[in-house]
Amino acid sequence: MLKNTATKEDFKILTKKEPQKSLLLRLPQNAGRSADGRINVRHQGGGEKKLYRIIDFGQDKINMKAKVVALEYDPYRSAFIALLQYQDNDKRYCLAPQGLKVNDEIICQDKTELIPGNRMKLKNIPVGTVVYNLELEPGRGGKLVRGAGTGAKILAHEGKYTQVQMPSSEIRQLLGEGFASIGALSRPEHKYIRVGKAGKTRHKGIRPTVRGAAMNPPDHPHGGGEGRTPIGMKYPKTPWGKHATGVKTRKRSRTDQHIIERRHKR
Questions:
Q1: Candidates 1.10.10.10, 3.30.1330.60, 2.30.30.30, 3.40.50.1220; CATH matching 21-190
Q2: Entry pTM
Q3: How does the average pLDDT of the chain come out, rounded?
Q4: pLDDT at residue 4 above 80?
Q5: Residue 8 and residue 206: Cα distance in Å, rounded?
Q6: Are 207 and 145 a contacting pair, CB within 8 Å?
Q7: Cα distances (Å, whole numbers) of residue 247 to 150, 169, 238, 250
Q8: What confidence score (pLDDT) does residue 3 get?
Q9: Hey, how many other C-beta atoms are within 10 angstroms of the C-beta on 131?
């Protein structure tokens, strides 16, 4: 059995149509280089041309039903997206949950049915329900749980806060006035995909990563020596001489005060 065999995905559920032109945007390609052409972000460059799909993370059309016109692929994110057509004929893209089909109808209300894709306030969602695209601050659109196959779980309601278990196993409290969508996101098999070949990675705009031990001493602290030489230091270092492992890199945030239980390391 070949270990590096590429995984082929089944895209049969997607609609065969061109993207909605009014919801496309061309983003500048900096390719990891500064204005004078020097690489200042490593491992970026090349890749296929792609257009950004404008996603409506807030879904602020309250009490207005939307019909799912199409399910589409988005090159800028791991989950699939759905093209919605509202009753006023306005079209918008949103994240597609598992089980959502073309011609389904979804709605955003303070309180509504527990149907995949429907959006409602956290304080009105029953305990045990799986949700995605949660608002960290009410009215500012969904910020949390937006990756393929992910879903958070409602644990409890206490006062103005709702306790939610994140996909990372972290438990945090969010304001109950914030909105969240019902269900888990589409494309759960995404984490099992095997790239299979270097060329597929290059198409995504990812350039090769070279081991520090394979470099020369001026280029990396691990470099130099004859043959396969150990790094020669107590701990691995980054190219800039800082600790590469065993150091906390997460920056403190003002929302940290709402974390009840940290994630469990796997």
A1: 2.30.30.30
A2: 0.89
A3: 93
A4: no
A5: 20
A6: no
A7: 27, 21, 12, 9
A8: 61
A9: 26
